[in-house]
Specification:
It is a single chain. The protein is an all-alpha fold and 104 residues long. The protein has helices at 2-6, 8-16, 21-49, 51-57, 66-92, 96-102.
Length: 104
């Protein structure tokens, strides 16, 4: 939602130059997924780096279990995709004239 607010003028320019609403929504979703994937990668690396601490907190699961790390990362990415769907839909509905006039 913050990204859509910050990029309203850019979205207005893109739409006035011929971008489709689906293209704008795809751009917003791709941007949020890119940041989420980067965060998930940093999280996986940090969890691997802190295995000594994590091993005392986990029961019946290894701290190095790749399936658990993959499920956690994929779950985070899916949750971010669902959370960014509504702002992406709002970005696709931006009126180019209003966006350019307001200059947000």
């Amino acid at each position: 939602a913050y990204l859509v607010t910050q990029c309203t003028q850019e979205i207005g320019i893109r739409m006035s130059l011929g971008a489709t609403p689906a293209g704008i929504a795809r751009m917003m979703l791709a941007h949020s997924i890119k940041w989420t994937a980067a965060g998930a990668a940093v999280g996986v690396i940090a969890s691997i780096a802190t295995t000594r601490l994590l091993s005392s907190l986990l029961f019946r699961v290894s701290a190095h279990d790749p399936l658990t790390l993959a499920i956690a990362a994929v779950s985070l990415i899916i949750a971010a995709l669902l959370a960014s769907a509504n702002p992406a839909r709002r970005a696709a509905a931006v009126d180019p004239i209003t966006a350019l006039r307001n200059g947000n």
